[in-house]
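[Primary structure, fold]
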Amino acid sequence: MRSYQPDLTPPWKRSAPVPEVPAEPDLVVEEVATGFCGAVIRCEKTAQGPTVTLEDRFGKHRVFPMEPRGFLLEGKVVTLVRPGPGGPVRPTRTASGSVAVPGARARVARAGRIYVEGRHDAELVERVWGDDLRIEGVVVEYLEGVDDLPAIVGEFGPGPDARLGVLVDHLVPGSKESRIAAQVTGDHVLVVGHPYIDVWEAVKPSSVGIDAWPVVPRGQDWKTGVCRALGWPENTGAAWQHILSKVRSYKDLEPQLLGRVEELIDFVTLPD
């Protein structure tokens, strides 16, 4: 008969048990050792033990062993385990990659605003960040171009409690857009932009089912040129709806747009 061996480890040195969490698809966790944060893509059984593949918001994949106490879920240490067959999959993230808040009510609109150049920009922002913006009470409006931006900013009257963020297409050094942005940027106005001629290009070609966005010769309407080069009907409105329908989450967008929109949301929502 085996004799009882008491555990003589001091209580303060004992590891407290942590919950086991099924590594279901789209569950977002942070790996403790590296700080890499991403959504679960798949779990695999290997000769070295089970592994989990994570994808961060920029589309980068990394594989980690599913070790005890190896991950953080919403800031708390957990042990990931392989999900059981037929287990429920609960949505944990919004389309932008933020933590989902089931049943959350929209906040009363803030005085601050985010302006984007055109209707397509506004529709894309709504598709990916709409849930986040409603919770934060941020309204997005579109400008139909940036030529009148100085007058619009003057009429808006930005201040500490009414910040204004502006997203501009093709904001590159020396451009007309960059000169206008310099006129209005200040403590309570942030103008950021992406390098693309049009927000269409901010959608990853692979998500649309093409190898790359076509190069359209100077002097030709870019959207019409894209439709022509891809063999699509030259109906830019219909083409945009097709592109927009392929965007399901932040994973379908280029990092150069993702970072700028997140920057604007932070700017108009953080305390002064």
Summary: The chain has two domains: 17-79, 111-267. Residues 182 and 191 are 8 Å apart (CA to CA).
